[in-house]
């Protein structure tokens, strides 16, 4: 499937009504985090179906999709990139993995909404840096760009699920002072995953950072706690925040 055909297939499943709903959900209005993002109303299942037939797209075509102002075109390009990375990983093609990783970083400014980050950061950046130096993530964590900061912590989720928690906890600590609610949610989400693997590690982190953790991040982090314990945590932090 070439680029022209991809756009035909996307428009076949587009829905103006769905587009309006998505534009509201992803906060595309003036001054909102997704300001200016355009949707045509393609559902996630349809995006995945179309992406599955796009293995033959060239990097030039993927770059054109990523430059698009249409959200679904960028999302589709990222789905294809994730599939490329996973295929190269399965084949132990390290050069192919490196190519996908570098291409992703070259177009990082186009990974510019939370669903785009969450659907690609772990699968590409996290997968690639699992046994490599993590300096790139710590650099992203102090970026002025919201989405780059979100990539830095979300990329660590595959490591957490494999029982490797230290990098996530270090980045979470660095990001506790972030002012954006989407970062509070991302940090809390990752901490919750830490707790699934090691409850003591999570509670130790919460205790040590009691005076710094935003309430939203805490709510996400302790979501799976028993109700009584959860309320006690929220009460203690409520006296500080």
SSE layout and pairings?
Blueprint: H1 3-12, H2 16-25, H3 44-51, H4 59-67, H5 71-90, H6 94-106, H7 114-118, H8 121-129, H9 135-141, H10 146-154, H11 157-161, H12 166-175, H13 181-197, H14 199-208, H15 215-221, H16 227-238
Helix pairs in contact: 3-5, 4-5, 5-6, 9-10, 10-13, 12-13, 13-14, 13-15
Describe the structure.
This protein has 241 residues and is mostly helical. It has 2 domains: 132 residues, no CATH class; 106 residues, Leucine-rich Repeat Variant. Helices cover 67% and strands 0% of the residues. It contains 16 helices and no strands. Helix 4 packs antiparallel against helix 5, helix 13 crosses helix 14 and helix 13 runs parallel beside helix 15. The chain is globular. The N and C termini lie far apart (53 Å).
The gyration radius over C-alpha positions equals 19 Å
Helix-strand string: HHHHHHHHHHHHHHHH
Q: Mean pLDDT across all residues, rounded?
A: 94
Number of strands: 0
The overall number of domains is 2
Report, as a whole number of angstroms, the end-to-end distance: 53 Å
Largest sheet: none
Specify the number of helices: 16
Query: What spatial form do the alpha-carbon principal axes imply?
Result: globular
What portion of residues is helical? Answer: 55-70%
- Proportion of strand residues: under 5%
* Spans where pLDDT lies below 50 across 5 or more residues: none
Helices and strands: which structural class?
Answer: mainly alpha
